[in-house]
Amino acid sequence: xxxxxxxxxMSLDKSFLQTPSPTHRLRVDTDALANNWRxxxxxxxxxxxxxxxxxxxxxxxxxxxxPVLRDAGAETFFAAHWSEVPPLLNxxxxxxxxxxxxxxxxxxxxxxxxxGARPVINSIEQAQRWKEGGGAVCHLMVDTGINRLGAAPSExxxxxxxxxxxxxxxxxxxxADEDIPxxxxxxxxxxxxxxxxxxxxxxxxxxxxxxxxxxxAFDLTRPGIALYGGVPRSEFAGRIRQVAxxxxxxxxxxxxxxxxxxxxxxxxTADRSMRVGTVSLGYADGFLRARGNxxxxxxxxxxxxxxxxxxxxxxxxxxxxxxxxxxxxxxDVPFSLPDAxxxxxxxxxELLTVLGQRLxxx
Length: 362
Ligand SMILES: *Cc1c(COP(=O)(O)O)cnc(C)c1O
Fold this sequence. Notes:
Lyase, Ornithine Decarboxylase, Chain A, domain 1, binds pyridoxal-5'-phosphate, about 20% strand, elongated, 2 domains, alpha/beta, TIM Barrel, about 350 residues, 8-stranded antiparallel beta sheet
Protein backbone atom coordinates (compact mmCIF):
# COMPACT_ATOMS: atom_id res chain seq x y z
CA UNK A 1 0.00 0.00 0.00
CA UNK A 2 1.39 3.38 -0.96
CA UNK A 3 0.52 6.69 0.59
CA UNK A 4 -0.11 9.65 -1.67
CA UNK A 5 2.63 12.24 -1.55
CA UNK A 6 2.18 14.96 1.00
CA UNK A 7 1.51 18.42 -0.39
CA UNK A 8 4.55 20.49 -1.32
CA UNK A 9 5.87 22.96 1.20
CA MET A 10 4.95 26.59 0.76
CA SER A 11 7.29 28.71 -1.29
CA LEU A 12 8.58 30.50 1.80
CA ASP A 13 12.30 30.36 2.38
CA LYS A 14 11.98 29.52 6.08
CA SER A 15 12.39 25.78 6.20
CA PHE A 16 10.59 25.52 9.54
CA LEU A 17 7.40 26.63 7.79
CA GLN A 18 6.54 23.16 6.55
CA THR A 19 2.89 22.62 5.80
CA PRO A 20 1.63 20.51 8.71
CA SER A 21 0.47 17.00 7.92
CA PRO A 22 -3.21 16.85 7.06
CA THR A 23 -5.72 15.40 9.51
CA HIS A 24 -7.30 13.15 6.93
CA ARG A 25 -5.90 11.06 4.14
CA LEU A 26 -6.84 9.08 1.09
CA ARG A 27 -4.70 6.03 0.56
CA VAL A 28 -4.65 4.30 -2.79
CA ASP A 29 -3.79 0.61 -2.60
CA THR A 30 -1.74 0.36 -5.76
CA ASP A 31 -1.42 -3.43 -5.45
CA ALA A 32 -5.20 -3.69 -5.47
CA LEU A 33 -5.38 -1.37 -8.49
CA ALA A 34 -2.92 -3.55 -10.42
CA ASN A 35 -4.78 -6.68 -9.27
CA ASN A 36 -8.06 -5.25 -10.54
CA TRP A 37 -6.61 -4.39 -13.96
CA ARG A 38 -5.20 -7.93 -14.26
CA UNK A 39 -8.51 -9.48 -13.13
CA UNK A 40 -10.42 -7.48 -15.75
CA UNK A 41 -7.78 -8.31 -18.36
CA UNK A 42 -8.22 -12.02 -17.59
CA UNK A 43 -12.01 -11.79 -18.01
CA UNK A 44 -11.48 -9.78 -21.20
CA UNK A 45 -10.05 -12.94 -22.75
CA UNK A 46 -8.27 -12.35 -26.06
CA UNK A 47 -9.15 -8.66 -26.08
CA UNK A 48 -6.62 -6.22 -24.74
CA UNK A 49 -7.66 -4.15 -21.77
CA UNK A 50 -7.41 -0.39 -21.64
CA UNK A 51 -8.31 1.96 -18.79
CA UNK A 52 -10.80 4.78 -18.39
CA UNK A 53 -8.81 7.47 -16.59
CA UNK A 54 -11.16 10.46 -16.89
CA UNK A 55 -11.90 12.68 -13.91
CA UNK A 56 -8.39 12.25 -12.48
CA UNK A 57 -8.73 8.46 -12.47
CA UNK A 58 -12.19 8.64 -10.92
CA UNK A 59 -10.89 10.88 -8.17
CA UNK A 60 -7.91 8.78 -7.12
CA UNK A 61 -5.19 10.75 -8.91
CA UNK A 62 -3.54 10.37 -12.30
CA UNK A 63 0.00 10.47 -10.92
CA UNK A 64 -0.80 7.68 -8.47
CA UNK A 65 -2.83 5.45 -10.78
CA UNK A 66 -1.47 5.79 -14.32
CA PRO A 67 2.01 4.36 -13.68
CA VAL A 68 0.40 1.38 -11.93
CA LEU A 69 -2.06 0.72 -14.76
CA ARG A 70 0.67 1.20 -17.36
CA ASP A 71 3.08 -1.15 -15.58
CA ALA A 72 0.31 -3.73 -15.16
CA GLY A 73 -0.06 -3.73 -18.95
CA ALA A 74 -2.67 -1.15 -19.97
CA GLU A 75 -1.80 0.49 -23.28
CA THR A 76 -4.83 2.63 -24.12
CA PHE A 77 -6.13 5.32 -21.78
CA PHE A 78 -9.50 7.07 -22.11
CA ALA A 79 -9.84 10.68 -20.94
CA ALA A 80 -12.94 12.85 -21.30
CA HIS A 81 -11.51 16.38 -21.67
CA TRP A 82 -8.52 17.78 -23.51
CA SER A 83 -7.50 19.44 -20.25
CA GLU A 84 -6.95 15.96 -18.84
CA VAL A 85 -4.30 15.14 -21.44
CA PRO A 86 -1.16 16.96 -20.18
CA PRO A 87 -0.98 15.15 -16.80
CA LEU A 88 -1.30 11.83 -18.64
CA LEU A 89 1.61 12.66 -20.92
CA ASN A 90 3.96 12.54 -17.93
CA UNK A 91 3.37 8.79 -17.86
CA UNK A 92 2.28 7.45 -21.26
CA UNK A 93 2.80 8.20 -24.95
CA UNK A 94 0.36 10.64 -26.53
CA UNK A 95 -0.95 8.18 -29.10
CA UNK A 96 -2.07 5.95 -26.22
CA UNK A 97 -4.47 8.65 -25.02
CA UNK A 98 -8.01 8.79 -26.44
CA UNK A 99 -10.15 11.85 -25.69
CA UNK A 100 -13.81 10.86 -25.53
CA UNK A 101 -15.40 14.30 -25.92
CA UNK A 102 -13.71 14.73 -29.28
CA UNK A 103 -12.69 17.92 -31.06
CA UNK A 104 -15.51 20.32 -30.23
CA UNK A 105 -13.52 23.42 -31.26
CA UNK A 106 -10.67 24.24 -33.64
CA UNK A 107 -8.56 24.81 -30.55
CA UNK A 108 -9.15 21.17 -29.61
CA UNK A 109 -7.95 20.08 -33.07
CA UNK A 110 -4.78 22.16 -32.79
CA UNK A 111 -4.12 20.80 -29.30
CA UNK A 112 -4.66 17.21 -30.45
CA UNK A 113 -2.26 17.61 -33.34
CA UNK A 114 0.33 19.41 -31.23
CA UNK A 115 0.26 16.81 -28.46
CA GLY A 116 -0.44 13.69 -30.51
CA ALA A 117 -3.36 12.61 -28.28
CA ARG A 118 -6.13 11.08 -30.37
CA PRO A 119 -9.67 12.38 -30.50
CA VAL A 120 -12.73 10.19 -30.44
CA ILE A 121 -14.80 11.66 -33.29
CA ASN A 122 -18.47 11.75 -32.33
CA SER A 123 -20.26 13.56 -35.17
CA ILE A 124 -20.05 14.68 -38.78
CA GLU A 125 -19.17 18.17 -37.54
CA GLN A 126 -16.30 16.82 -35.47
CA ALA A 127 -15.07 14.75 -38.42
CA GLN A 128 -15.09 17.82 -40.66
CA ARG A 129 -13.31 19.92 -38.07
CA TRP A 130 -10.70 17.21 -37.61
CA LYS A 131 -10.05 16.78 -41.35
CA GLU A 132 -10.01 20.52 -42.09
CA GLY A 133 -7.59 21.08 -39.22
CA GLY A 134 -5.20 18.52 -40.69
CA GLY A 135 -5.94 15.68 -38.29
CA ALA A 136 -4.80 12.15 -39.15
CA VAL A 137 -5.39 9.01 -37.05
CA CYS A 138 -8.45 9.21 -34.80
CA HIS A 139 -11.05 7.05 -33.11
CA LEU A 140 -14.77 6.96 -33.91
CA MET A 141 -17.70 6.59 -31.51
CA VAL A 142 -20.87 5.11 -32.91
CA ASP A 143 -24.05 5.46 -30.91
CA THR A 144 -25.97 2.20 -30.51
CA GLY A 145 -28.61 3.42 -28.10
CA ILE A 146 -27.22 5.42 -25.19
CA ASN A 147 -27.91 8.63 -27.15
CA ARG A 148 -25.17 10.64 -25.56
CA LEU A 149 -22.16 10.92 -27.85
CA GLY A 150 -21.48 9.24 -31.17
CA ALA A 151 -22.53 9.02 -34.80
CA ALA A 152 -25.65 7.11 -35.78
CA PRO A 153 -24.91 3.81 -37.58
CA SER A 154 -26.86 5.18 -40.56
CA GLU A 155 -24.36 8.04 -40.84
CA UNK A 156 -21.31 5.81 -41.14
CA UNK A 157 -21.56 5.70 -44.93
CA UNK A 158 -21.07 9.47 -45.04
CA UNK A 159 -17.94 10.25 -47.08
CA UNK A 160 -16.49 12.35 -44.29
CA UNK A 161 -16.55 9.36 -41.91
CA UNK A 162 -15.36 7.03 -44.66
CA UNK A 163 -12.37 9.32 -45.24
CA UNK A 164 -11.19 9.09 -41.61
CA UNK A 165 -8.15 7.06 -40.60
CA UNK A 166 -9.80 5.18 -37.73
CA UNK A 167 -7.88 3.27 -35.11
CA UNK A 168 -10.59 2.33 -32.58
CA UNK A 169 -14.23 2.04 -33.63
CA UNK A 170 -16.20 2.07 -30.38
CA UNK A 171 -19.62 2.22 -28.85
CA UNK A 172 -20.85 2.44 -25.26
CA UNK A 173 -23.35 0.24 -23.42
CA UNK A 174 -26.18 1.96 -21.58
CA UNK A 175 -27.26 -0.87 -19.26
CA ALA A 176 -24.35 -3.28 -18.94
CA ASP A 177 -24.95 -3.47 -15.18
CA GLU A 178 -28.43 -4.92 -15.81
CA ASP A 179 -29.60 -8.12 -17.49
CA ILE A 180 -31.95 -6.67 -20.05
CA PRO A 181 -32.42 -7.19 -23.81
CA UNK A 182 -30.96 -3.79 -24.59
CA UNK A 183 -27.44 -5.20 -24.16
CA UNK A 184 -27.92 -7.71 -26.99
CA UNK A 185 -29.56 -5.05 -29.14
CA UNK A 186 -26.56 -2.76 -28.71
CA UNK A 187 -24.23 -5.69 -29.40
CA UNK A 188 -26.00 -6.42 -32.68
CA UNK A 189 -25.99 -2.78 -33.69
CA UNK A 190 -22.30 -2.50 -32.93
CA UNK A 191 -21.47 -5.67 -34.86
CA UNK A 192 -23.29 -4.14 -37.80
CA UNK A 193 -21.31 -0.93 -37.48
CA UNK A 194 -18.00 -2.79 -37.54
CA UNK A 195 -18.84 -4.02 -41.07
CA UNK A 196 -19.69 -0.55 -42.32
CA UNK A 197 -16.44 1.33 -41.87
CA UNK A 198 -12.75 0.53 -41.90
CA UNK A 199 -10.97 0.55 -38.57
CA UNK A 200 -8.10 -1.18 -36.84
CA UNK A 201 -9.58 -2.07 -33.45
CA UNK A 202 -13.13 -2.34 -32.10
CA UNK A 203 -14.27 -1.71 -28.52
CA UNK A 204 -17.62 -1.93 -26.73
CA UNK A 205 -17.33 -3.03 -23.10
CA UNK A 206 -16.93 -0.86 -20.02
CA UNK A 207 -16.38 -2.59 -16.64
CA UNK A 208 -19.84 -4.11 -16.45
CA UNK A 209 -19.75 -4.98 -20.16
CA UNK A 210 -16.69 -7.16 -19.58
CA UNK A 211 -18.82 -9.41 -17.35
CA UNK A 212 -21.37 -9.87 -20.16
CA UNK A 213 -19.07 -12.36 -21.84
CA UNK A 214 -16.62 -12.82 -24.69
CA UNK A 215 -19.10 -11.57 -27.32
CA UNK A 216 -18.85 -8.12 -25.83
CA ALA A 217 -15.06 -7.94 -25.58
CA PHE A 218 -14.11 -7.26 -29.25
CA ASP A 219 -10.45 -6.13 -29.56
CA LEU A 220 -10.24 -3.79 -26.59
CA THR A 221 -12.16 -3.33 -23.35
CA ARG A 222 -12.47 -0.02 -21.48
CA PRO A 223 -12.93 -0.62 -17.75
CA GLY A 224 -13.13 2.30 -15.37
CA ILE A 225 -15.02 1.89 -12.10
CA ALA A 226 -13.97 -1.72 -11.48
CA LEU A 227 -10.29 -0.76 -11.73
CA TYR A 228 -10.83 1.58 -8.81
CA GLY A 229 -12.71 -0.91 -6.64
CA GLY A 230 -16.27 -0.58 -7.92
CA VAL A 231 -18.33 -3.75 -8.30
CA PRO A 232 -20.91 -2.97 -10.99
CA ARG A 233 -22.00 -6.59 -11.40
CA SER A 234 -22.06 -9.52 -9.00
CA GLU A 235 -19.71 -11.53 -11.26
CA PHE A 236 -16.92 -9.28 -10.02
CA ALA A 237 -17.60 -9.80 -6.30
CA GLY A 238 -14.53 -11.36 -4.72
CA ARG A 239 -12.32 -10.57 -7.73
CA ILE A 240 -12.24 -6.81 -7.46
CA ARG A 241 -10.40 -5.41 -4.45
CA GLN A 242 -10.98 -2.16 -2.62
CA VAL A 243 -8.53 0.49 -3.87
CA ALA A 244 -9.46 3.70 -2.04
CA UNK A 245 -9.03 3.84 1.72
CA UNK A 246 -10.08 6.86 3.70
CA UNK A 247 -8.90 7.80 7.19
CA UNK A 248 -9.53 10.86 9.33
CA UNK A 249 -8.29 12.01 12.72
CA UNK A 250 -10.16 13.10 15.83
CA UNK A 251 -9.42 16.80 16.35
CA UNK A 252 -11.43 17.33 19.55
CA UNK A 253 -13.36 15.29 22.11
CA UNK A 254 -16.10 16.35 24.51
CA UNK A 255 -18.70 14.81 26.78
CA UNK A 256 -22.36 15.53 26.08
CA UNK A 257 -24.91 15.78 28.88
CA UNK A 258 -28.40 14.36 28.50
CA UNK A 259 -30.43 16.65 26.21
CA UNK A 260 -27.46 18.27 24.45
CA UNK A 261 -27.48 18.16 20.68
CA UNK A 262 -24.80 17.80 17.99
CA UNK A 263 -24.20 19.73 14.79
CA UNK A 264 -26.33 21.81 12.44
CA UNK A 265 -30.07 21.74 13.02
CA UNK A 266 -29.48 19.83 16.23
CA UNK A 267 -30.40 16.58 14.56
CA UNK A 268 -28.95 14.34 17.21
CA THR A 269 -29.81 14.74 20.88
CA ALA A 270 -28.04 12.76 23.59
CA ASP A 271 -30.33 10.62 25.73
CA ARG A 272 -27.45 9.80 28.07
CA SER A 273 -24.14 11.28 29.02
CA MET A 274 -21.74 10.33 26.23
CA ARG A 275 -18.23 11.05 25.02
CA VAL A 276 -17.99 12.13 21.38
CA GLY A 277 -15.19 12.99 18.97
CA THR A 278 -15.09 15.63 16.24
CA VAL A 279 -13.41 14.18 13.15
CA SER A 280 -11.68 16.05 10.35
CA LEU A 281 -13.80 15.04 7.38
CA GLY A 282 -16.81 16.68 5.77
CA TYR A 283 -18.78 17.15 2.62
CA ALA A 284 -16.13 19.46 1.18
CA ASP A 285 -13.96 16.35 1.10
CA GLY A 286 -16.65 14.41 -0.73
CA PHE A 287 -18.07 12.80 2.41
CA LEU A 288 -21.64 13.70 1.54
CA ARG A 289 -24.56 14.21 3.91
CA ALA A 290 -26.16 11.20 2.25
CA ARG A 291 -23.55 9.11 4.04
CA GLY A 292 -24.41 10.44 7.47
CA ASN A 293 -27.49 8.55 8.57
CA UNK A 294 -26.82 5.14 10.04
CA UNK A 295 -23.14 5.26 9.11
CA UNK A 296 -20.24 4.53 11.45
CA UNK A 297 -16.51 5.11 11.39
CA UNK A 298 -14.34 2.32 12.72
CA UNK A 299 -11.25 1.69 14.71
CA UNK A 300 -10.28 -1.93 14.22
CA UNK A 301 -13.55 -3.84 14.53
CA UNK A 302 -15.17 -1.25 16.76
CA UNK A 303 -17.92 0.89 15.25
CA UNK A 304 -18.22 4.57 16.08
CA UNK A 305 -21.66 5.79 14.89
CA UNK A 306 -21.97 9.19 13.28
CA UNK A 307 -24.04 11.72 15.20
CA UNK A 308 -26.00 14.52 13.51
CA UNK A 309 -25.42 16.12 10.14
CA UNK A 310 -22.19 16.03 8.16
CA UNK A 311 -20.66 19.54 8.18
CA UNK A 312 -18.40 20.99 5.50
CA UNK A 313 -15.19 20.02 7.28
CA UNK A 314 -16.27 17.88 10.23
CA UNK A 315 -18.33 14.99 11.47
CA UNK A 316 -18.99 13.93 15.04
CA UNK A 317 -18.86 10.31 16.19
CA UNK A 318 -19.94 8.49 19.32
CA UNK A 319 -16.82 7.35 21.21
CA UNK A 320 -18.70 5.17 23.71
CA UNK A 321 -17.33 1.98 22.17
CA UNK A 322 -13.72 3.20 22.26
CA UNK A 323 -13.18 5.29 25.40
CA UNK A 324 -9.39 5.18 24.97
CA UNK A 325 -9.50 7.34 21.83
CA UNK A 326 -8.57 11.01 21.95
CA UNK A 327 -7.34 13.96 19.94
CA UNK A 328 -5.00 12.96 17.13
CA UNK A 329 -6.15 9.35 16.90
CA UNK A 330 -6.98 8.09 13.42
CA UNK A 331 -10.25 6.44 12.43
CA ASP A 332 -11.11 4.37 9.37
CA VAL A 333 -13.90 5.57 7.13
CA PRO A 334 -15.39 2.39 5.64
CA PHE A 335 -15.13 2.87 1.87
CA SER A 336 -15.98 -0.40 0.23
CA LEU A 337 -17.76 1.06 -2.80
CA PRO A 338 -20.57 -1.49 -3.12
CA ASP A 339 -21.34 -1.30 0.62
CA ALA A 340 -21.08 2.48 0.79
CA UNK A 341 -23.32 2.85 -2.26
CA UNK A 342 -25.92 0.60 -0.73
CA UNK A 343 -25.75 2.40 2.61
CA UNK A 344 -26.04 5.89 1.14
CA UNK A 345 -27.96 5.47 -2.17
CA UNK A 346 -25.10 7.38 -3.79
CA UNK A 347 -23.70 5.52 -6.81
CA UNK A 348 -20.27 3.90 -6.62
CA UNK A 349 -19.15 6.27 -9.39
CA GLU A 350 -20.26 9.36 -7.49
CA LEU A 351 -18.79 8.20 -4.18
CA LEU A 352 -15.35 8.16 -5.80
CA THR A 353 -15.49 11.13 -8.13
CA VAL A 354 -16.77 13.56 -5.49
CA LEU A 355 -13.73 13.01 -3.31
CA GLY A 356 -12.57 16.54 -2.57
CA GLN A 357 -9.44 18.14 -3.91
CA ARG A 358 -8.34 18.81 -0.32
CA LEU A 359 -8.35 15.08 0.34
CA UNK A 360 -6.79 14.06 -2.96
CA UNK A 361 -3.70 16.14 -2.40
CA UNK A 362 -3.00 14.41 0.92
C1 LIG B 1 -16.45 6.17 -18.52
C2 LIG B 1 -16.43 5.34 -19.71
C3 LIG B 1 -15.96 4.03 -19.65
C4 LIG B 1 -15.67 3.31 -18.36
O1 LIG B 1 -16.91 2.95 -17.78
P1 LIG B 1 -17.01 2.18 -16.37
O2 LIG B 1 -18.47 1.95 -16.21
O3 LIG B 1 -16.48 3.11 -15.34
O4 LIG B 1 -16.22 0.95 -16.48
C5 LIG B 1 -15.81 3.34 -20.84
N1 LIG B 1 -16.15 3.92 -22.03
C6 LIG B 1 -16.64 5.17 -22.11
C7 LIG B 1 -17.01 5.73 -23.44
C8 LIG B 1 -16.81 5.91 -20.97
O5 LIG B 1 -17.33 7.15 -21.04
